[in-house]
């Protein structure tokens, strides 16, 4: 099924007599039982006001189309949504719906927030086939919920996104990357925390075990020169890349191209940054990337081996991104599971939207 309008989508959901698997371009490796409901037909930019820093587009609109449009006005999606094609081995075009449904954000999240922080409004169709939107008619039994925050990261389990309103920001005039080589994970975490606690507005802080620790600064050229000098004095890191070379390096980090190919499972850990080195010591992964100053770790792990047992005692959300043999999402506490079940019952009373995907 591939609806081309919100009304058509609502009719399809109302007529469904079994589970539906909501998919955009299929670039993020998510799968579930049920008839596939393809949302790529709900595409197109319906409003773009550069002066108001606002863009409204269909959920099936590709990230490439949006980025090309914004670039003409010197603007961008500042939260750096990830393209996971290299990591997942997929070939489709990342869509806005997939970005919002997974609350995707890249290294800039540490300074500028995630997708939900830049999401101004949503329209979607719930599991009863009702059209829901912000600021207008809302479902009687969900009035009072922050729909933007609920839908971002819900992986299609509460509703099928149809239209999204996003805040955009100016593209920085230039940027620079500072690097230091040979640090342990513990040393890197402390250095990244020091940099992020400084007044020099770091917008990226990552560590590649066995390689470099990288810091990014963006802005007007004179400001970047001044701040990189001060940050170098503070941390000992030296400027290694500037301008387009720096942008290209952080695009690779954003899209996790270092994990392309291979048959190892890929996991994402979210935890307290200061616990990052402990997690790395316990797991001793192959390839790994410590993002968010250690608060988000992407790593390879032996195929079929559930790493959660090795992280006991750490307050850590471990999600399997690529691979088989483990529960994809972190098992929830009874209290959280009860809360999620209650929300699903209100938004999707028949339990047909991406059933079983998040527990």
What does this structure look like?
This protein is α+β, with helices and mostly antiparallel strands and 359 residues long. It has three domains: 6-170 and 337-347, 2-Layer Sandwich (Uridine Diphospho-n-acetylenolpyruvylglucosamine Reductase, domain 3); 174-255, Alpha-Beta Plaits, CATH 3.30.70.2190; 258-322, Alpha-Beta Plaits (2-Layer Sandwich). The chain is 29% helix and 25% strand. The chain is built from twelve helices and 17 strands. It has helices at 6-15, 63-71, 85-88, 96-101, 109-112, 115-118, 147-151, 185-196, 221-235, 243-255, 276-283, 334-347; strands spanning 20-23, 35-38, 45-49, 54-58, 75-76, 119-125, 131-133, 160-167, 169-170, 174-181, 202-207, 212-219, 238-242, 265-271, 288-291, 296-301, 316-322. The strands form five sheets. The protein has a five-stranded antiparallel β-sheet. Strand 6 (119-125) and strand 7 (131-133) form a beta hairpin. The longest helix is centred in the middle third of the chain and has 15 residues, at 221-235. The protein is globular, with a radius of gyration of 21 Å. The two termini are 25 Å apart.
């Amino acid at each position: 099924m591939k609806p081309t309008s919100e009304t058509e989508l609502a009719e399809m959901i109302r007529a469904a007599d079994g589970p539906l698997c909501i998919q955009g371009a299929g670039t993020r490796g998510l799968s579930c039982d049920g008839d596939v409901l393809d949302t790529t037909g709900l595409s197109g930019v319906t409003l773009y006001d550069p002066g108001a820093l606002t863009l409204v587009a269909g959920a099936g609109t590709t990230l490439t189309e949006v980025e090309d449009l914004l670039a003409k006005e010197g603007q961008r999606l500042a939260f750096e949504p990830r393209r996971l094609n290299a990591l997942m081995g997929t070939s489709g075009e990342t869509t806005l719906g997939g970005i919002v449904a997974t609350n995707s954000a890249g290294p800039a999240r540490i300074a500028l927030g995630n997708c939900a922080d830049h999401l101004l409004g949503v329209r979607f169709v719930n599991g009863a086939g009702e059209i829901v939107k912000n600021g207008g008619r809302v479902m009687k039994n969900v009035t009072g919920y922050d729909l933007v925050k609920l839908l971002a990261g819900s992986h299609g389990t509460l509703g099928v996104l149809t239209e999204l309103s996003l805040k955009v920001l100016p593209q920085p005039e230039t940027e620079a990357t500072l690097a230091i080589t040979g640090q342990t994970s513990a040393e890197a975490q402390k250095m990244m925390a020091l940099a992020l606690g400084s007044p020099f507005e770091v917008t990226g802080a990552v560590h590649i075990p066995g390689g470099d620790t990288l810091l990014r600064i963006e802005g007007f050229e004179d400001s970047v020169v001044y701040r990189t000098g001060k940050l170098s004095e503070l941390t000992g890191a030296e400027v290694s890349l500037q301008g387009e070379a720096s942008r290209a390096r952080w695009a690779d980090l954003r899209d996790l191209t270092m994990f392309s190919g291979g048959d190892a499972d890929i996991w994402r850990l979210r935890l307290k940054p200061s616990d990052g080195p402990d997690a790395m010591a316990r797991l001793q992964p192959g390839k790994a990337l410590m993002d968010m100053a250690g608060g988000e770790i992407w790593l390879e792990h032996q195929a079929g081996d559930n790493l959660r047992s090795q992280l006991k005692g750490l307050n850590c959300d471990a999600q399997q991104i690529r691979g088989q043999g483990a529960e994809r999402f972190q098992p929830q506490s009874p209290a959280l599971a009860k809360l999620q079940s209650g929300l699903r019952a209100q938004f999707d009373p028949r339990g047909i939207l991406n059933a079983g995907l998040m527990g």
